[in-house]
UniProtKB/TrEMBL annotation:
Keywords per UniProt: ATP-binding, Carbohydrate metabolism, Kinase, Nucleotide-binding, Transferase
SUPFAM superfamilies: Ribokinase-like
Name by which UniProt lists this protein: fructokinase
Presence of keyword Cell wall biogenesis/degradation: no
Gene Ontology annotations of biological process type: fructose metabolic process
Enzyme Commission identifier(s): 2.7.1.4
Gene Ontology cellular-component annotations: cytoplasm
Domain Carbohydrate kinase PfkB: 59-365
Bias type Basic residues, positions: 9-21
Stored Pfam families: PfkB
UniProt region (Disordered), positions on chain: 1-37
Higher taxonomy: Eukaryota, Viridiplantae, Streptophyta, Embryophyta, Bryophyta
Length: 402
């Protein structure tokens, strides 16, 4: 039996993190104990559910990828060198999505790796406090938790400086995967940062394979961070390497420009990215809302105007809003009205998150979202094309994703 490591107290002595060694042979990383978290594989009265039963009963979304510290300047519009101070904020796109889902009342788990250091312990504790399952988190004693310094422009947009070479998330190994939690998921959500280097790339691919074989929907938000890739060409190749595996794809308008070189406001351009197996593709446009594309219909759902402070995490909040509804109602992909309501909800989630600095601290709960959705200004017009299916057939014959 693996030895139990000593209990570790948080900086204020209020919280405990219990750790034990991973069962995977030869691994030097540590696993987080599930004792303070929800048991995904059982429910009251039944302690021996199968992963398939857990999938049905828990509506679980598993988020795979990076978990890091964002250092956000307390004053916007300044360079990193000129910023007087920084606010420490938990971050990492997949982790943001997991917390966002949990805060909206959903069931979420995070799969990833942090350093065996104070930041790593703090980050996992934040996930726990937000009711995110962390039993698949790993701690690496030989690498640090990733850090990112974020420059806020006057309009709230960001630029990044990363400290990771290598960080613990880059060293996540296949043998450290908790395959049971992947098999229990209804949706596996991931980005592209874990595709940049080995061994995390192979681990990412294995997680997708296990989830797909278990019947999961695969949700992909590339979350482009060019400074982390060796070159723009490598970023395009890496992002597109798993494109055709995803059932749900969310990209920003800026990412569309990067990937296609075309205009993200033109449906013809965006449909170059829509692969035959895709069930839903979304192009987000910040405060203007989002465009949606399915095999049956397409359209646009308008956004809402808020006072933007920091756009960090807005796209992740959008994903959380959508996935929290989709996991409860998978059929909404085939019903345009229900999909539009879910996207309106997701747009509001993203908008609220921009009103505060940092990602996780700004993610809203369901009551907050519903209150804002009742505002008259949230109802926006949209357009749909009744000849969409005919256009798709033409597009698949005559267009390619470059």
């Amino acid at each position: 039996m693996s030895p139990i490591l000593p209990t570790r107290r948080g900086s204020k002595g209020r919280h405990h993190i219990h750790l034990h060694h991973c069962s995977s042979g030869g691994s030097h990383s540590r696993c987080d104990s599930p004792d303070r978290n929800l048991d995904l594989y059982s429910s009251p009265g039944s302690r021996s559910q199968t992963p398939d039963q857990a999938k049905s009963n828990n509506e679980l979304v598993v988020c795979f990828g990076e978990l890091l510290i964002d250092f956000v300047p307390t004053v916007g519009g300044l360079s990193l060198a000129d910023a007087p101070a920084f606010k420490k904020a938990p971050g990492g796109a997949p982790a943001n999505v997991a917390v966002g889902i949990a805060r909206l009342g959903g069931n979420a788990a995070f799969v990833g790796k942090v350093g065996d250091d104070e930041f790593g312990y703090m980050l996992v504790e934040v996930l726990k406090e937000n009711r995110v399952e962390t039993k698949a988190c790993r701690f690496d004693p030989n690498a640090r938790t990733a850090l990112a310094f974020v420059t806020l422009r006057a309009d709230g947009e960001r630029e990044f400086m990363f400290y990771r070479n290598p960080s613990a998330d880059m060293l996540f190994e296949t043998k450290e995967l908790d395959t049971d939690i992947l098999k229990a998921a209804a949706i596996l959500h991931f980005g592209s940062i874990s595709l940049i280097t080995e061994p995390s790339r192979s681990t990412h691919m294995e997680a997708m394979k296990v989830a797909r074989e278990a019947g999961c929907l695969l949700s992909y938000d590339p979350n482009l961070r060019l400074p982390l890739w060796p070159s723009p060409e490598a970023a395009k190749e890496g992002i597109k390497s798993i494109w055709d595996e995803a059932d749900i794809i969310k990209v920003s308008d800026e990412e569309v420009v990067f990937l296609t070189g075309g205009d993200p406001t033109k449906d013809e351009n965006n449909m170059r990215m829509f692969h035959p197996k895709c069930k839903l593709m979304l192009v987000t446009e910040g405060g203007e809302g989002c465009r949606y594309y399915t095999p049956k219909f397409r359209g646009k759902v308008g956004g809402i105007k808020v006072q933007v402070v920091d756009t960090t995490g807005a796209g992740d909040a959008f994903c959380a809003g959508l996935l929290s509804n989709l996991v409860k109602d998978p059929g909404l992909i085939d019903d345009e009205q229900r999909l539009r309501e879910a996207l309106k909800f997701a747009n509001v989630c993203g908008a609220i998150t921009t009103t505060e600095r940092g990602a996780i601290p700004a993610l809203p709960d369901r009551d907050t979202v519903m209150r804002m959705m009742r505002r008259p200004s949230v109802a926006q017009s949209s357009s749909t094309d009744p000849s969409w299916q005919g256009y798709q057939k033409w597009r698949f014959r005559n267009s390619t994703f470059v």
